[in-house]
Write a structure and sequence with these properties.
Layout: E1 18-22, E2 28-32, H1 44-53, E3 58-65, E4 71-78, H2 79-95, E5 104-107, H3 112-124, E6 128-130, H4 134-137, H5 143-152, E7 156-159, H6 165-171, E8 177-180, E9 191-192, H7 193-197, H8 203-211, E10 217-222, E11 232-236, H9 237-250, E12 260-263, H10 270-282, E13 286-289, H11 299-308, E14 313-316, H12 318-328, H13 332-338, E15 344-347, H14 354-368, E16 373-375, E17 377-379, E18 386-389, E19 399-403, E20 408-414, E21 417-423, H15 435-441, E22 448-456, E23 466-471, E24 476-477, E25 483-484, H16 486-497, E26 501-507, E27 514-520, H17 524-528, H18 536-541, H19 543-559, E28 567-573, H20 592-598, H21 600-607
Parallel strand pairs: 3-13, 5-6, 5-7, 7-8, 8-9, 12-13, 14-15, 15-16, 27-28
Antiparallel strand pairs: 1-2, 2-20, 3-4, 10-11, 17-18, 18-19, 19-23, 20-21, 21-22, 22-23, 24-25, 26-27
Length: about 625
Amino acid sequence: MTETTPKYRPLAFGITRGVLREGEGGVAYLSAETPLPPYAHRMTDRLVHWAEVAPDRTFIAQRARNADGSRGDWVHMTYREMLAKARAIAQALLTRGLSPERPVAILAENGIDHALIAFGALLAGVPHCPVSTPYALVSKDYEKLRHVMATLTPGLVFAADARYAKAIAAVVPADTEVVLGEGRLQDRASTTLAELLATEVTPAVDAAMANIHPGTITKFLFTSGSTKNPKAVINTHRMWCANQQQLRSSIPALGEEPPVLVDWLPWNHTFGGNHNVGIVLDNGGTLYIDDGKPTPSGIAETLRNLREIAPTVYFNVPTGFEYIADAMETDAVLRKNLLSRARMFFYAGAALPQAVWDKLHTIQEAEIGERLVMGTGLGMTESGPFGLYITRPEVATGDLGLPTAGMEIKLVPTDGKTEIRYRGPNVTPGYWRLPDVTHESFDEEGFFMTGDAVDWIDPQNIHLGLRFDGRIAEDFKLATGTFVSVGPMRARITAYGAPYVQDAVLTGINLKEVGALIFCTQAVRELARLPADAPWQQVLESPAVQGHFQRVLNKLATDSTGSANRIARAVLVAEPPSIDKGEVTDKGSINQRAVLKHRDAAVQALHADTLPFTLKPQ
C-alpha cells in the first residue's frame, strides 16, 4: 500500500463478478456470478426467532416525548415484548375481519406504536400501509391522502394522535374504525391503542401465522405520485425475505454481528420501512429511531442521537450526509462516536455530491486513520428495494455496481440510452387494483421496466458494474433535435454549486437552449451575510449569492461540449417545491416533470428573458 492509496476500514464485498449474455437487437442480460442462498419464507418467522434466541435484546428504541414536545430518555422495546404485544394486536385485527380488501392504514411517524400496529398486522396476515405523513399534516387539500384511502378502502385507520384529526375528518369514511395511539378525537368515536393491546390472544393468531406464505402481502407502499396519482406497490413476504438475503449476499457485514442502526428514514418509503427495518429484524439487531431529519430545524436531534448511539452501519440521504459532514468538522464528540464502530456509510435517494464525499473521507482519515466505504447502488420500491450494489471501495458518485444475487437485469437500448429492467424474487407482482398498469409495467419476458438509464463504469471490465445515467422519461430534445441528458447535468450543477444547491430542474424542451431552475440550500444565508430574518428572495438576490452562482454557471459553460450540456440561462428559485403538487417527496427528492408542469410560466419567462436576476454564462 503506497502513501497515495487510500486506506479503508475493512469491508467485504460479496458480489464482485458479473455474468453477461447477449440477446437480440442490442439487448443484454447481466446477473451476479454468485447464486442466491436459501432465504426465509416469511418475515414473521424472524420476529419469532429472535424473540426466542435473544428475547431481552432491544429491537426498537425511541426517545420519550416530554410534555413540551422535546425528546427525553430512550424507551426500549425488546424482541419478546414486541412479539407479545403484536400478537394481541393481531388478535384484535382478526376479530375485526380485516383482509387485503380491508387493510390497515397507518397515519404516524416512525415510532414504537407505529411498529406495534405494523407487526400486529404482519402476524395476522393483514396488509398494512404506512401513509406519507405530509399527506395528512402538510397538505392543504388532502388530495393524495384521499386517493390513498380510496385505493386501499381500509377497514381500520391507526393515527398516532389528534394531530391527524382534520385529515381523518376530511378523508376517512365515518364507518371506518379509527384507533389512536394517544388522545381522543373531539367529533368522532375512536378506539385506543391500549384497547387493542388488551385483547386476549386466541389460537386464531397461531393459525393466521401458519397460513402466511411467501406470496402473502405484507404491506402496500405508495409511489411518490410526482406526475400522476400515487400507485400502491404490492409487497410480499417473498420480496422482503429474498431482499434481505440479497443484502447479505452483497454486503456480508450485515450478517456478521447484530446491526445497530440510528435511522430517521420514513417507513412509508421502502428505504426506511423495508430496507432498514428489515436489516434489523432479519439479523437480530437494534433500531434506534431518530426523530430528527436532514433539515435546518431537524438536524440537531439527529446529531444529538449520533453523539450518543454508535451505529454499526449508517444510512442517510445526500442532504443528511452533507449536514453531518459539516457538523463533524467542529464536533469532536460526534466524530468519535459516529466513527467508532461504523463498518460503512450508505446513501440512496439522489446523487451524493463529490464535495460531500471528499469531506467525509478527509474527516474520517483525520479521526480514525482510514476511510469508511460509502456504499450505494440502485433500487426502487418495486424491487424491494435493494437491486444493485458497488463492487469495491473505490467508488465515485453515480456508481451503481452489479446486480445482487438472484436478480437478473436486462439492458435495453432506449432512445439513445440504456434502460435497466429487473426480474427476480424481490420484484413486486404489481400494483394494487391496477391490473392494466401492472401489465404495462412488465415486458414480454417478465422484466419490470424501471425507466432508469445506466451505462458501464468501464465497458472493458463488466465486473466493475454500472453507473447511473439518469431517468429516461426526464430527458428531452432541444429544437435542434439534440437530446439533453438530464441526470448527469443535474449532478454537475449540484456538484459545482456545493454546498449551496439542493437540486436543479432543467428547462428547454423543444427550445434552442438548456436552462435551469436552481433550488438552494439554507447554507446560502451564510453566503449572503444578511440578517438571519432576511426574506428568502432577498437572500437569493444578494450580490454574494448571485456572484457565486455566476461563477458556477461560468464553470459549467467552460466544461460543456455543446448546446445539449451547456446551461445557457438559470434562475435561483425562491418558492420551495410543493409536496401537494408532487414536485417533491417527503424525502426531499425533486421531480423534474412535475416542477416543469406547475412552473410553466416561470420557465417560459426564463427563456423569454423577462425574469429579473437571470444568470447567463460570461
